[in-house]
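Notebook, bench 3.
Goal today: get a predicted structure for Phage holin family protein from Anaeromassilibacillus senegalensis so we can plan the truncation constructs. The sequence was checked against the plasmid map this morning, with no discrepancies at the termini. Length recorded as 155 residues. Pasting the sequence as submitted so the record is complete.
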Amino acid sequence: MKKTILKSALAALGASAAAYCGALAAPLLVLLGVMLVDYATGMVKAYITAQLSSKIGLRGILKKLSYMAMVAVGAAVDYLLTCALSAAGVGVELKLYCGLLVAVWLIVNELISILENLAAIGVPGFPALNRLLRRLRTAIETETEPTEGGKTHDA
């Protein structure tokens, strides 16, 4: 009986979180997954290279938590822009553009870090995948950088 109540409560909590996050739920789950894999491969790399340290590990965890804060800031910017535009009478709705952009950028960076950790561990790499991820990161960065006149490339 207690297991059923616990499972129901966890399912309700998960469904509530997914409904609240909306379009940001899937990228947040992917980001959480790649952060866990990156942390695990980083720990294995530190163990193999005899650099395992609880202080460095704690710093890594705090860094990963800061990533989630960055996504939250992006989502807050989206909310503020939507509110400001609607107050100005402009009917444009930004469907979590900044939050999604930050999440995708962080996912790509985490994937690159995982590949670097695996290479340091001695796992044979797939160079084409590494090049693809670096190109994707560059494309995301150049897509959001301001050009002359203050407009972004995607404007």
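The helical segments are 2-21, 25-48, 54-87, 97-121, 127-144. The CA atoms of residues 46 and 56 lie 9 Å apart.
Flagging this for group meeting.
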